[in-house]
TrEMBL record:
Keywords: Membrane, Signal, Transmembrane, Transmembrane helix. The keyword Lipoprotein does not apply. This is Aerotolerance-related exported protein. The chain crosses the membrane at residues 447-465. It holds the Pfam family BatD. It comes from the Bacteria. The lineage of its organism: Bacteria, Pseudomonadati, Bacteroidota, Flavobacteriia, Flavobacteriales. The keyword rRNA-binding does not apply. Residues 1-21 form the signal peptide.
Length: 589
């Protein structure tokens, strides 16, 4: 009996140890049923420190915030408990039942997965009209508006579209993120640079400060009703509330998805009445001229003939008229030049075609008048401009005997029949007079001597290359630097691919820095703290300045989750990471 009890005790202790050693990795959601206008918080929580966390694809949702990483250490009666959480904020994109699929993480060399969680998304729910409710305050106090300069333009008449964010006084906008670029079907579009400068305005009769987020100039390319699709952003704002915590704070941070209204523009067709035959689609207010670089020259010299249109209008959207020249002038394909700027009122500037003309014979050659037609939307009429006729005087050169009319002496050159006497082809030889081809022997030929001298030329080159390679290999400091740079690029290769995505870049960068310390210092990421890292790196003879650089990189990764970062900042942090890891690898002992 004692033996059985002893065995039972051992089995119980082993089973308890196995149960205690089990890893918990689970998905927690803030609610399993929500409206399409609400947000869902998803926590992926583990009770052991893990690395290489991979989030699932959130089908039916858009990531509005996150991932936010947090770790918690608790000591209770000498026992330590640990938890690590990755948090996401999701915005539903449609109604229905969706599944939060499995997330993955690596813990102590093993891959663990969460269980799927189903979430039901219903129609938009009514939100309480409570002045202390942050969501309600944001929905009532911040608006994204699409403003258009002309809702009834002609075809190819400019329309300015401005996306303005109106914010009620007292609400602070911390950051915003575009949810895709605006699309303009059946429009030629040009983005205008804007500065996020607050201006005073009114919204529905109330004073509202606003900023212009985006501004475009559009040229409609199709008549009829054309739709300007909504523009959407995710905005992070701080809202004042009546609630106060122990620190006296009274602001609550809220994420909000805003979309502007869909707008319709009715594009009018250009009138058919009075349309010139040479009209090529130009709409605006233009000047037109044809000029030449010279009007008097010798044969075989060149001149430049230029057709130029300047003014305001759709300069990039029509073809210039062609220059018609006499066939006795040699003309090269024109060189197109464009000096056009796009402003809030549309395009303005000049375009031109420059022809290179080379006369071959002496004489006077007229360049006939050229016409250019355009539609003026202000006057609502077509206008035609004509250039003057230009005469090119070729003062010196051979005479053109093929000219039928001689305008100087009013005489006519008659064409004569040509008779042959049978000797016009006498320059052609009828005897081939072929000779046998003599081949040169390889021995004592030029190729023979070249191949003979090759070894004497290449042996010194090989010796020099080997000497340089030996010096390269003996350069210990240089080799150490190159090895350190390769190591840094290895750890940061994934971060480099994420340079265009702020959240993903800093998440991958933080993981790379942690993995590097794990490899170099043989410590778990749960032991990471600024003091611990500083102590370990200092003990391994890393210079204090390099240690501070590494600590500041970790801080940048933490702050980047809550503050905006420009592309310049992201690139600087990447370059700084490469340099810091290289310096640590060279200095560490």
């Amino acid at each position: 009996m004692k033996t059985k009890a002893y065995i039972s005790t051992i089995i119980f202790l082993l089973f308890a140890g196995i149960v205690t050693a089990q890893v918990t990795f689970e998905t927690k959601v803030s609610k399993k049923k929500l409206g399409v206008n609400e947000r869902l918080r998803v926590d992926f929580k583990m009770d052991r420190d893990g690395d290489n966390f991979t989030a699932p694809k959130f089908t039916g949702f858009r990531v509005a915030g996150g991932p936010i990483q947090s770790m918690n250490h608790v000591w209770n009666n000498g026992k330590r408990s640990f938890s690590k959480t990755y948090t996401y904020f999701l915005q539903p994109t449609a109604e229905g039942t969706f599944t939060i699929k499995q997330a993955k993480v690596e813990i102590e060399g093993q891959i663990y997965k969460t269980l799927p969680v189903k979430v039901q998304v219903t129609k938009a729910v009514a939100k309480p009209k409570d002045g202390n409710n942050a969501d309600y305050v944001v929905s009532e106090g911040i608006h994204l508006v699409t403003e258009i300069s002309n809702g009834n333009p002609y075809l190819n008449e400019p329309v300015t579209v401005s996306y303005k964010l109106y914010v009620k006084p007292g609400i602070n906008v911390n950051d915003y993120r575009e949810l895709g670029k605006p699309t303009f079907n059946n429009f030629w579009s040009q983005n205008l640079e804007t500065r996020l400068k607050a201006q005073n305005g009114t919204y529905q009769g109330e004073p509202y400060p606003y900023v212009v987020l985006k501004r475009y100039v559009l040229y409609p390319q199709k008549t009829g009703k054309q739709v300007i699709e909504p523009f959407s952003i995710d905005v992070q704002v701080s809202v004042p509330t009546q609630r106060r915590d122990v620190f006296g704070r009274r602001y609550e941070t809220v994420h909000k998805t805003l979309s502007s209204a869909r707008r319709t523009v009715n594009v009018k067709a250009l009138p058919e009445a009075g349309k010139p035959a040479d009209f090529a689609g130009a709409v605006g207010d233009f000047d037109f001229q044809v000029t030449t670089s010279k009007t008097s020259l010798n044969a075989s010299e060149s001149l430049q003939a230029k057709i130029e249109v300047s003014g305001k209008g759709n300069l990039k959207l029509f073809q210039l008229p062609k220059l018609k020249l006499p066939s006795s002038l040699e003309v090269y394909d024109p060189e197109f030049t464009e000096r056009v700027t796009t402003r809030i009122t549309g395009m303005q500037g000049k375009i031109s075609d420059s022809y290179t003309v080379v006369p071959q014979y002496k004489g006077k050659y007229p360049i006939p008048s050229v016409s250019f037609s355009y539609f003026d939307p202000k006057a609502k009429t077509y206008k035609t401009l004509r250039s003057d006729e230009i005469v090119i005087d070729v003062v010196d050169g051979p005479a053109n005997t093929a000219t039928a009319d001689n305008t100087d002496n009013n005489t006519t050159t008659q064409k004569q029949l040509i008779t042959t006497n049978g000797s016009q082809f006498r320059f052609l030889k009828t005897d081939a007079n072929l000779m046998p081809m003599v081949t040169e022997d390889f021995f004592k030929s030029n190729l023979f001597y070249a191949l003979l001298l090759c070894p004497f030329i290449f042996i010194p080159i090989i010796l020099i290359v080997r000497r340089k390679k030996r010096a390269f290999d003996n350069d210990i400091e240089g080799s150490k630097t190159r090895r350190a740079n390769r190591l840094a690029k290895k750890y940061l290769s994934e971060a480099k691919r994420k340079l265009g995505d702020k959240e993903a870049f800093y998440e991958v960068l933080e993981r790379a820095l942690h993995n590097y310390l794990r490899a170099k210092l043989s410590i778990e990421t749960s032991e990471f703290s600024k003091e611990k890292i500083h102590q370990l790196l200092t003990e391994r003879s890393v210079k204090p300045a390099t240690v501070e650089e590494f600590i500041s990189l970790l801080e940048s990764c933490e702050f980047a989750r809550y503050t905006p970062a420009s592309d310049v900042t992201i690139n600087k942090d990447y370059e700084k990471s490469v340099e810091t890891i290289s310096q640590i690898d060279k200095q560490i002992k």
